[in-house]
Write a structure and sequence with these properties.
By secondary structure, the chain is mainly alpha-helical. Helices cover 80% and strands 0% of the residues. The protein is flat, with a radius of gyration of 12 Å. The protein starts with a helix and ends with a helix.
């Protein structure tokens, strides 16, 4: 069973949303990491 990026994005968004609710200071780090990952995957394709 393989998980594609399309299936993985909602899971990552849900986890990030929960973490931001628990610790709002994580918002900058989570957004930065997400943008880096999306940028790298966009360049690879």
């Amino acid at each position: 069973m393989t998980i594609s990026l399309v299936q993985l994005q909602p899971i990552i968004a849900l986890i990030a949303g929960i973490l931001i609710l628990i610790m709002p200071r994580l918002l900058n780090f989570i957004v930065a990491i997400y943008l880096i990952i999306v940028g790298i995957t966009g360049l690879i394709r």
